[in-house]
Amino acid sequence: MFKTTLFTTDSLPALISFLLPSALYAALGAHFWFTRWRQDAPAPAQMQAWERAAIGAALVGHAMSINNAMHQPEGVLFSFALALSLMMWLAALIYWLESFCARMEGLQPMVLPITAACTLLPVFFPQTHLVANIEAVGFRLHFLAAMLAYSLFTLAALHAIFMGYVEHKLHHRQLTRRLISLPPLMSMEKLLFRILTVAFVLLTVTLASGLLYAEEIFGRALQIDHKTIFALISWLIFATLLLGRLVYGWRGKIALRWTLIGFGVLLLAYMGSRFVLEIILSRP
């Protein structure tokens, strides 16, 4: 079933529920840029309690907006826009939780503006489809593992891009204020591989549950389509990367390239197909 009325003229509260956390994310992103990245800013300070509380408030508001948009009287709705919004919510949540253990304030100007933009995607792309078999245990396992895996791989890709930027600056001895506010490069690399390891396990669970519960989830036997092929290719890429890290100590540019290539293939597996079906072809 396909639906195109997630936001209508009589759904102003739903619209506001996405606008408010997006505005808060954007304001916080600007705040962290002015206080941590700008060259004439004071000496970078560790994240303050009120800053963590403000990010937490944006995360709570964002979660409520996604939950309200997905759960409708006719059932559970979903779309590529809601998926991206949910993925960036989880990515921002992970950075927020990590900030309690390590200095992450220098990374907030990167993740918060992107999260602000993705929060608004369901407003601009309101097309949704009714999710079938939502009560099935196999589907719930598959859906939860897939969303967590995609979110972590998204965060890993953003993290890898920023690590590449930091490495380039350090290699050319360009020590800017934004670099001073960041965790050490080795710490960022350890965090990257922690994220990749958990994401890989979840991707494995996603593929395994899709194979074991195909008929319960999709109402038919598993079919080898482009989505399945791209997902398997991305699994092989990340398996090779983690094995290379363990056996050969891969790091630096090699690790960053493999991370971005794997993420690109994984993005094609789901987001590419959903965007074409929902936005271009207007099909569920």
Brief account:
This protein is mainly α and 284 residues long. The chain is 73% helix and 4% strand.
**What is the 3D shape?**
flat
pLDDT < 50 stretches: 277-281
Give the integer mean of the pLDDT values.
81
Distance separating the two termini:
6 Å
Largest sheet: 4 strands, antiparallel
DSSP, total strands? 4
Helix content: over 70%
Q: How much of the residues is beta strand, in percent? A: under 5%
Strand order of the largest sheet: 1-4-3-2
Q: C-alpha Rg, in Å?
A: 20 Å
Reading the helices and strands in chain order gives EHHEEHHHEHHHHHH
Class from secondary-structure proportions: mainly alpha
Please work out how many helical segments DSSP would assign. 11
Highlighted features:
284 residues; mainly alpha; 4-stranded antiparallel β-sheet
Question: Can you describe what's shown?
Answer:
With 284 residues, this protein is mainly alpha-helical. It is built from eleven helices and four strands. The protein has helices at residues 12-37, 49-70, 80-98, 108-119, 121-124, 137-171, 177-180, 185-212, 214-218, 226-248, 252-280, and strands at 2-3, 71-72, 75-78, 128-130. The chain has a four-stranded antiparallel sheet with strand order 1-4-3-2. Strand 2 and strand 3 form a beta hairpin. The longest helix is centred in the middle third of the chain and has 35 residues, at 137-171. The radius of gyration is 20 Å and the shape is flat. The protein starts with a strand and ends with a helix. Mean pLDDT is 81; it is low at 277-281.
